[in-house]
Amino acid sequence: MKQFAGLVFLCIVSFSSILGNADSNMISDLCKHCDDPELCLSTIKARPESGEFAATTNQIEIIAISVASADASATSTYIKEKLSHEDIQPATEATFEDCQKNYQDAVEQLDDSISAMLVDAHADVDVWLHAAISAIESCGDDLESRGGNDAELSKRNEVFLKLCKNALVINKMLT
Hints:
Elements: H1 2-19, H2 24-31, H3 37-46, H4 49-52, H5 57-83, H6 90-118, H7 122-145, H8 151-174
């Protein structure tokens, strides 16, 4: 599914470059409604495809979801690195393994969100984004209640949740 979503995304990016560049006001208009408008604007505009691909609000939504997915993948890599330490405590290891699984699930859910956006299924996008948010909230709860409280992972969780919530707001605006 991940490869399919990626292939479809690349096809749309290639096709959309023929249509012209996005109106940066369109991105600003969508992001100003988010809980963290600066994060929304900076992360979407930082993506190279935002100039060529973001010709419609749906395409901006796909970029916002892609940003969250890339963030989740980076956090998953961070957790894998932490788990590779030989001196990790058993309680910390269990917490990190659960968070690793949650981040893998979140990436899959975000890929499903992108697939849903490609067919303009905003209700499905809403479901998948909420599922990704719930998975990472579970990771945060585990960090607080069990061993393994890691300040960096807590911060990464916070950023991921903001990115997903930004995408959720944009999605709600498009329905």
